[in-house]
Amino acid sequence: MYTVKIDGDKCLGCRLCAIVCEGLDVRSDVLAYVAEPDKLDNVKEAAAICPENAIKVIEEN
């Protein structure tokens, strides 16, 4: 399980994260968010491709 933090000041709303991880989406205000917490299997990959490093993933034990 992961805690995902998205920095709204850095997020460009490019949707790359949402393309890679189906648990993420971009709202109408052009900021990424966790839409489906149970579908974050690829969230680390999404964080890695974020051009602004706006996504932080914290693994929980």
From TrEMBL:
Keywords: Iron, Iron-sulfur, Metal-binding
Keyword Iron-sulfur part of the UniProt annotation: yes
Gene Ontology molecular function terms on file: iron-sulfur cluster binding; metal ion binding
InterPro entries from the UniProt entry: 4Fe4S_Fe-S-bd, 4Fe4S_Fe_S_CS
Keyword Ribosomal protein in annotation: no
Domain (4Fe-4S ferredoxin-type) ranges: 2-29
One Pfam family recorded for the sequence: Fer4_15
PROSITE patterns with a match to the protein in the record: 4FE4S_FER_1, 4FE4S_FER_2
Protein name: Ferredoxin
